[in-house]
Write a structure and sequence with these properties.
homodimer; alpha/beta; 9-stranded mixed sheet; globular
Chain lengths: 294, 294
Amino acid sequence: MTTTREISRSRIFGGQQLRFAHRSSVLDCAMTFGVYLPPQAEYEAVPALYWLSGLTCTDENFVVKAGAQRLASELGLAIVCPDTSPRGTDLPGEHDDWDFGSGAGFYINATEAPWSAHYNMYDYVTRELPALVEAKLPLTDKRSVSGHSMGGHGALICALKDPQRYLSASAFAPICHPSESPWGIKAFSHYLGDDRNAWREWDATQLVSSVGTQLPILIDQGTADEFLGEELKPGNFEQACIGTHHPLEVRMQGGYDHSYYFIASFIDDHLRYHARALGLVVVQPNSGLQANTG
Amino acid sequence: MTTTREISRSRIFGGQQLRFAHRSSVLDCAMTFGVYLPPQAEYEAVPALYWLSGLTCTDENFVVKAGAQRLASELGLAIVCPDTSPRGTDLPGEHDDWDFGSGAGFYINATEAPWSAHYNMYDYVTRELPALVEAKLPLTDKRSVSGHSMGGHGALICALKDPQRYLSASAFAPICHPSESPWGIKAFSHYLGDDRNAWREWDATQLVSSVGTQLPILIDQGTADEFLGEELKPGNFEQACIGTHHPLEVRMQGGYDHSYYFIASFIDDHLRYHARALGLVVVQPNSGLQANTG
């Protein structure tokens, strides 16, 4: 904890956008992450949304592009943004592809060498990082989780695997069924090996049938998303949720693509959805969505 | 006009973020620019804010980082974002420094060789680009102008040199007195030569004393801006405005730096300020500022 170093600090919407560097024990490497602290954090501990980014992103993309700080400052909501993979390691082939290795940790715990020595992003984003920021910064242990694409997959598996850690979950254009998507198959084959039984616990569409939890999930998906049919497959997840009576709302947003322009357009709906679940006062709700706070 | 090519189009907040490539005649090179069209532009021509970016930026920084599309879509305001210099030329030393040459056109018309063959950004942003977008896209000839840092300087000189073209003007952390700032002196020496009399018509603090126009100007400036004292000098401009009774409001924003986090925090105030001047309905004003619409 004492080695966590503040890299930068900028005032934004009355709060502070912070960036930190630290050494992660579960990843065994140096990492960076971002935290937005709303103005309310000057006086009291605030709940936090954990945002998991997509392929090729770092901890900075959401911070710079999503425009989330404006409403987060009104709601009194912190936003924690981890990086998308271990960094500074040089495993064989780690930096060759944009959709595998660095920038593509898939928020799972790898079991295959050499990846298993570092690629434990699930433990990092659900355990190590929350413990660190909740000890170091004025954050409560009330958490929500969301993310985009690969990070949407991450948010779904976090919510399904460990729903006691989160009060609400949502995703933008998530990879819903990685065992059936080229991105997911490539990543899981390397990180988890060829036995597809080992993939089940990291695949939201398969997980939802085996878990007993009922944390409602909100998904926004653009209809003009170039990855919709081959990589994302929200219909598969929806079918699985229907089969197991898992609460889910999928909003198909007409004409939106896979970019941050899509995320920016709907992030406020998600922030209000999470704020309600986290017990914050939502002055101007523009959505009828109700998250389960139990 | 017929050679203007659409590079990309993404839906955002119900409108469209567009990017174009074209060949500029006044710059004699290929250029790119961005246009945000709000949803209202599907049915009628809308007024436009011209945004001039700062040193090292392209036409994309504001589009991606400022978060302006959310309120622009409510107001029915288009936003036109030119690049910051000619591109694709290879003049001697043009790409050596981040604060001069490419990415640093300073929105003036150069008179010195070899710059004068291309570096005519003033004519580009005030004449050629408006004529192009108003002919090609559903934009009216009602215009406002704003910008950041070098682009804030650009917005000030556009408003002071040709106030009939704009209904309102504002700036974020503008270089107010380039003849007395290291950035300005370096650029003006190369683009305009060593005779400082030729600099006067491109220096807002000097211009304001010699023009008879009274287009009100709004400036936001962060107090933690690392360039405030040496490069920006808003006090010099304020003194000149007081001397000539030019309407000006300078808001010193406590703790904000020079980054896009600062711009994002206050862009909504500026959009409402311009929208009022442009005759748009501003449903939820949060500022008492009134621009002169005459």
